[in-house]
Specification:
- By secondary structure, the chain is of the alpha/beta class.
- It has one domain: 3-Layer(aba) Sandwich (Rossmann fold).
- The chain is 45% helix and 12% strand.
- β3 and β4 form a beta hairpin.
- α5 runs parallel beside α6.
- The longest helix is centred in the C-terminal third of the chain and has 18 residues.
- The protein is globular and about 50 Å long.
- The two termini are 17 Å apart.
- The structure holds adenosine-5'-triphosphate (ATP) and magnesium ion.
- Adenosine-5'-triphosphate binds next to α1 and α10.
């Protein structure tokens, strides 16, 4: 089952966390059981989902560093079908603690394997670096989702990110794919935004999600209310754009009819399953 997604970009403040929590919340509303792993010691996904002070024994620090049952760390959020393993500042020490471990790039993968079958999608909110936590996240993932801010400097760091992606793919996780690129914080009045959108679409083609997230005050103020913007103010333009992204995400990666075969007969289901999978692969 290919259902683990790293929201990853080593550049800070590009919309990784905002994209992960809003897409997760919308997928939850659509009926999918979703787990977010907050792998950033800033714990923005944790507080953005309304969890202020997670109990320090139940965080992604334990998940990656200690020998614990991963399911025991999963916390239910206030949002339908959305579950979380929270983070706290302790996670900052994990990079160092993993240094002397054998197979240190695989510490998270072994834990995630035991969670995969309990959730339809696992979304990992990565930190803004290419350190050991990000490497562990990419090694554990089926897809990388790249949020990119629509500004010139966003493209500058992209080469380095793609180089790391290739290194992980070649050496540590052959099945890692680029799942998609989410263009964020667009200011449609400027030529630069238009140029960045064009350049990114030329390079990544259909991997770029159709909808582009505009700059939106509502998206930026939602975290201070402990709610994803799509719940805090579902009708603003930013939330509407994330709604389109979540639908596209569902269509690309989570086939609800196949997972919940209520209408189709078994034989029809099998054939549609095969054609669907092959068309998905030919698209990307
Ligand atoms: N479309 C948007 N319009 C306006 N503000 C936004 C938008 N998306 C995100 N923000 C705000 O920009 C800041 C950075 O966003 P976010 O935290 O999602 O980025 P990030 O890539 O996760 O950052 P970090 O690298 O620090 O983890 C936050 O204050 C967030 O609320
Ligand atoms: Mg973040």
């Amino acid at each position: 089952m290919k259902n683990v997604f790293s929201f990853c970009n080593q550049k800070g403040g590009v919309g990784k966390t905002t994209s992960a929590i809003n897409v997760a919340t919308l997928l939850g509303k659509l009926g999918h059981r979703v787990l977010i792993l907050d792998m950033d010691s800033q714990a923005n996904a944790t507080s953005g989902l309304g969890i202020e002070k997670p109990s320090i024994e139940f965080t992604t620090y334990q998940l990656i560093v200690e020998n614990v049952d991963p399911l025991a760390l999963v916390k239910q959020t206030a949002f339908d079908n959305v579950f979380l393993i929270p983070s706290n500042p302790d996670l900052a020490a994990a990079d160092l603690e993993l240094i002397n471990r054998e197979r240190r790039e695989y510490c998270l993968k072994e834990k995630i394997e035991t969670l995969k079958s309990d959730f339809e999608a696992i979304l990992i909110d990565c930190p803004p670096s290419l350190g050991m936590i990000t490497i562990n996240s990419l090694v554990s993932s089926d897809y990388i989702i790249i949020p990119l801010q629509c500004e010139y400097y966003a493209l500058e760091g992209l080469g380095q990110l793609l180089h790391s992606f290739e290194l992980v793919k070649q050496n540590l996780n052959n099945s890692l794919e680029i799942g998609g690129v989410i263009l964020t914080m667009a200011d449609f009045r400027t030529n630069l935004t238009q140029q960045v959108i064009e350049e990114v679409r030329n390079y990544f083609k259909e991997k770029v999600f159709q909808s582009v997230i505009p700059r939106s005050v509502k998206l930026s103020e939602a975290p201070s209310f402990g709610k994803p913007a799509v719940i805090y103010d579902p009708h603003n333009k930013g939330s509407k754009s994330y709604e389109e992204i979540a639908h596209e995400f569902e269509k690309r990666f989570l086939n609800f009819e196949i997972r919940n075969p209520k209408i189709e007969t078994n034989s029809k289901l099998e054939s549609s399953n095969i054609s669907n999978e092959s068309s998905e692969h030919s698209d990307f």
